[in-house]
Amino acid sequence: MIDPDVAAWILDFLLRQTLDDSLVHRLILSLPIPAPSPSSPLHRTLILRRLSSDLSRRSLSPRTLHSLELLSSLPRPSSAAALRAAYAAVAADLTVKPLRPSSRGGDDDGGGGGGGEGGGEGEFYDAVNRIWNCRVADLEAAAEGAEGAEAAAGLVSPELRATRREMEEAVVDATVRAGLVVRYTEERAFQAVRVYLEEAWKELGPSFLELAAEALIGMAKGKGLEMENPNSSKPSPEEGSRLLELVNHSGTVNKRGKEIIEENTHEGESSSPELHDPSSVGWNRMGKCKSTNFRSFENANESGNRCTKTILKLDRDSAAERRPSMMERNPTARTIECCIVVEVRKNQLLFTVSCSYGLIDIQPVCCAAGSHHYPKEQVFLHSPGLIDCQSQLTSVPARWVSRTCINYSRKANHETWDDLFGSPLPANPVEEPHVSYPQKGKDSLLVKDNNQFILRKRRKKWSSLEEETLRKSVERHGVGNWKFIKQCHPSIFKDRTEVDLKDKWRNLVRH
DNA sequence: ATAGGGGTACGG
DNA sequence: CCGTACCCCTAT
């Protein structure tokens, strides 16, 4: 079984190659990427790759802006000046786009809107509102606040402020509008992005695998080369041998991952060449092979007294018997080896599943199916009669889980729900392993009459920033335009749906 | 997509 | 234990 960290190295390496997007997409789906870490080096590579992909497809979109925003929020942002320039250029391009003659012909909106003349202006006003009055305004506000400065200040430049003023003028002045079309061409934006990418890739340096390869060559020559990139540590001899192992087994690794991709293809899903949201993938350790896949563990005994709690340990992998400690990574672990914490509260079932390693196959399936890639909210199965598990599991709403996932797990022949609940409860529920078990903010599993399970979103308190933004947005755009308001502040409201905004507003006006 | 009704979780 | 914030479902 392929090691998740090695997978991350591979991905990091491959992302820098000139691979087709769809191939990259498949790689992301089929490699067992370990738990996400916002500060991981892979994160940066992924966003850069996403940006490169936009450039090579010659398709600038809000996603491009988002990529640039993410890049600016990374620690030690690279090529800050070029990044600012690229951001301003892309923002201007996206705004002006509806004004260009070419955009009237074939837009991506197949809805057959017969707007004809004037439609471009309408879209332009919307774009100014969305991009400059909301998005850029947020950046500027954050840049002024002393605390928010780290993230946003990197993008705010005199150029950006000037462009914003210009856009606002253009709303009321047709002459200015005409001037925008001439000056802010798409090519200009492409160029700015190209310049930034060139610098950023250069600054990133060689991938860990390349450095490792160098080191291996060095070892072979018996003189151990020095690593040049200070971000990566020198691979140890063990790591070197693991890399070699990897090469030897590359033909057979992840066979099941391929089957999954085929299944997805049959379902007609996952055909989009889009890369996943880069915030979803990361790696725990670059060049450090000691940490385990278990994070901090809490004793599951310490829960509410009105709950009945059970821990069932499934361990059908005979190879795991020799494993000395749950705190050590077990390379032979299979998907069927897991701990399930079950909690019965009133008419709800809450449970958490944790497995030591493996399950490299389920995650890709779920990601592909939902066309989302959820960083912490890994998916496991919830279908009547079936339970599946995921390393460091948490849960996701049922609507994110696909049929593909369910079908796959059927094939995998997992334990059935009845098997689990029919099992005798252990006298002492908490045995040797400490199970990762988030006491706060865990998801619940409701049981419906028809024996279906429905997961509930994690409850999250509204921050004052969210509240303020909502207040201002309603003031600006009126009550009821929830979707638009969400679009205006994609980062602030990233964890909220339009319905959430509506509900929150209902609460705000009640008092 | 949005409004409104209703269930659940959490803090006092 | 209760009130409220948060979340979900469904009709329109």
Automatic annotation (TrEMBL):
GO molecular function, one term: DNA binding
InterPro entries: Homeodomain-like_sf (IPR009057), Myb_dom (IPR017930), SANT/Myb (IPR001005)
Keywords, in A-Z order: DNA-binding
Keyword DNA-binding annotated: yes
All residue ranges annotated as the HTH myb-type domain in the record: 456-511
CDD domains (alphabetical): SANT_TRF
Domain of life where this protein originates: Eukaryota
Domain Myb-like stretches: 458-509
Compositional bias of kind Basic and acidic residues: 263-277
Region (Disordered): 98-120, 263-283
Start-end of Gly residues biased regions: 111-120
Gene3D superfamilies linked: 1.10.246.220
Signal peptide positions on this chain: none
Record protein name field: Uncharacterized protein LOC109713512 isoform X1
Record organism: Ananas comosus (Pineapple)
Gene: LOC109713512
